Amino acid sequence: IDYRGSRVLGIGDDVDFRHGLPAKNIYYARGVDEHVSFDINGKNGAVPLDLNMEIPNKYHNVFNIVTNYGTIEHVNNQYSVFKNIHDAATVGAVFIHGFPLMGNWPLHGRYYYCPCVLRDLCRRIGYKMVVTHVDHVFDPPKPDDKDVFAAWIKTSDRPFISEGEFANIKIYDS
Known about the structure:
By secondary structure, this protein is an alpha/beta fold. 19% of the residues lie in helices and 32% in strands. The protein has helices spanning 23-29, 78-88, 115-125, 163-166, and strands at residues 7-11, 15-16, 21-22, 34-38, 63-68, 89-100, 111-112, 127-136, 146-154, 172-173. The strands form 3 sheets. A 6-stranded mixed beta sheet has the order 4-1-5-6-9-8, sandwiched between helices. The radius of gyration is 15 Å and the shape is globular. The N and C termini lie far apart (34 Å).
């Protein structure tokens, strides 16, 4: 991805765990215009927002790259967190995700995902699914460390789906 000129939203306090540095530093080194992260903990420069609640309007329709590398599964209100990232993204925004695969990461978070659930989510919200891929997070692999990596694109400015329709998406709640 060419990050030059991008406005990046990171869901979570966005630390590059390989180097122990705030991801913000890495994104700015790659030429982004802006990097903002949302995390209730406020660490590493994150805006301290509760993603169970609606984000402020000043963050709507702002970001053309949205990343989630292991935070969404910890947010109790799945509808709210997915609506928030939808509202924050511009049309054409690229979403890059790492979700814990069902049957992996025991006791890690509340929610677990599989590729079919993510494809269903994209279909319902009208996004273009670019890729879903299941792989180990660590090299060398550890037992039960598989994630579903996914990338999708927001293709229109239509509002996010209703809570009732979202409830039909079968995200595994542990």
